Amino acid sequence: MRKPPSCGRRCRAGASSCTCSYLQVTGHGIEASLMDALIAASREFFRKPVEEKQAYSNLIGGKQWQLEGYGNDPVKTKDQIMDWSDRLHLRVEPEDERNLDRWPGHPASFRGLLHEYTASCKRVKDEILRAMARLLELGEDDGILNQFGDKGTTYARFNYYPACPRPDLVLGIRPHSDVCVLTLLLMDEHVAGLQVLRDGTWYRVPPVSDHTLLVNVGVSLEIMSNGVFWGPVHRVVTNSEKERMSLAMFYSTDLEKEVEPIAELLGEKQPARYRKIKFRDFVAEHYEYFSKRERVIESLKI
Ligand SMILES: O=C(O)CCC(=O)C(=O)O
Ligand SMILES: [Fe+2]
């Protein structure tokens, strides 16, 4: 596992680019051929005619938005600016709660590849969260994993950004922090787009090669660690020449679990810095704030 260079203006990645907010993981043991095949299969899905993709829509009856499926974000207001991206958002864990009718049946390899990738990423995620528990000096290595509750949930989100004729007018994904505990991001190796906000400046995250995974702290972990870890604000910009793809695996707690600072980290001198919130409500509020381009976590700070 390779730690990126130190933070902020001293970033060695260059004045306009930054990898400081993300941990990069190489040598993770996930087969490169599996990653390539899954990205190729999802690219094939996104290139299908819209009518075919609509069969997996995230709008029930063409109207009511749900998290899972193919489509875009919920539309909250008439003047909401939409993102320039196509998404496929699928619950992959718990395995017995998968809605396979939302999983593309074509190409035929897609479901098997996603199943395999989910199992491989789980190992990587567990190892990272155990290392992070040690960094927090928790009594046990599973100190963060134990916070997930009985039914920790994992969503895979395939992001497809077609080339955009007016990149000056629209973003691929507007500024946000991930609401989950941890994200494992597989980015396009050739096309840049991800940017991270530091001290009021947007820094470009350069594309990474060799099947490197980017690890992003989500705001659930920011709360659990009582602010020791921080969920960076990031966005994706578009470009007029090339399409781009990414695959994010979002690891979240049980929907019924309260997300709160880990008790072991609190004391007289370290009071809780965040209010607790049930994860189900956290997700709902996240989308309310997201549509207004605000961060839900700000409302939980004490
Ligand atoms: O496409 C990317 O590089 C980032 C995607 C992202 O931030 C997300 O899916 O939450
Ligand atoms: Fe994100």
Automatic annotation (TrEMBL):
The keyword Lyase does not apply. Belongs to the iron/ascorbate-dependent oxidoreductase family. Keywords: Iron, Metal-binding, Oxidoreductase. This is Fe2OG dioxygenase domain-containing protein. Residues 152-253 form the Fe2OG dioxygenase domain. InterPro entries: DIOX_N, IPNS-like_FE2OG_OXY, IPNS-like_sf, Oxoglu/Fe-dep_dioxygenase_dom, Plant_2OG-oxidoreductases. It comes from Urochloa decumbens. Coiled coil: none annotated. GO terms for molecular function: metal ion binding; oxidoreductase activity. Signal peptide: none annotated.
